[in-house]
Amino acid sequence: MAKELYFEDFYVGQKFASLGGVKVTAEEIKEFGSKYDPQPFHLDEAAGENSFFKGLAASGWLTAAIVMRLRVQSLNVAGGMIGAGVEEMRWTLPVRPGDSIHTEIEVVGVRQSQSRKEFGIVRTRTLAYNQHNEVVMRSTVNFLAPLRSAVK
Amino acid sequence: MAKELYFEDFYVGQKFASLGGVKVTAEEIKEFGSKYDPQPFHLDEAAGENSFFKGLAASGWLTAAIVMRLRVQSLNVAGGMIGAGVEEMRWTLPVRPGDSIHTEIEVVGVRQSQSRKEFGIVRTRTLAYNQHNEVVMRSTVNFLAPLRSAVK
Known about the structure:
2 copies of one chain form a homodimer.
Chain A: E1 15-17, E2 22-23, H1 26-36, H2 45-49, H3 60-74, E3 82-91, E4 100-112, E5 119-129, E6 135-146, H4 148-151
Antiparallel strand pairs in A: 1-4, 2-4, 3-6, 4-5, 5-6
């Protein structure tokens, strides 16, 4: 587990790489698709062939969920990573069965919260890559981090 | 299933309500949490009590996934709803075990794609509500819709 971080530990330009890659399987694509994004190209290879994606592809929301897991593993915020909103999220390439996803997070902003005095807001840009180091998703996400001075 | 829609069928101000509510269970919160967002407040009631959320709460990415399912059910785009990016997503209230989520989608923009001549881009604002009609999540999401004139 990465070192526990408070707001004071974050600075612009700081980077966090995921500890490893996450392999995406056809089974997981179909299971997630059937639960949360039941469209033919997320459920079935043959239906995918006749679609925009020209094959089975992961739901963008599965990719986002996998990226969240990688974020949680590589960046250990004291008290947990509490989402303070997504500013942008783009899916730039399909994620296919067998792809392995890894992430790089960069801190692009830090500011104290006006509404919650004991927290700061950390703005992060995350790039998710496949095994060919092609960007499959990018996002700008804010999360809360507690002030060390407020909890100790 | 809702009527299949092409780009020409969308207009600003158009609304799509989800067909019903989706009940969120503690089991689903924990299962999704353990797979994609393994933080104490998404995994365990007792750990949740001692956290920011003061109880077990759904991962925001589970809420986003449930909202996607509701979007797919209420809005049937010809060829499927191909995400063209999230402009904004905010989690405004925790989603708890037993909550029932429903959505309202409003079309807030329509324009032809510059890069893909056979598609238009539909910009939508989605509000997700709990059973008390409190907004738990809001988002602005773009998706592609094929031009009827291009495929027929």
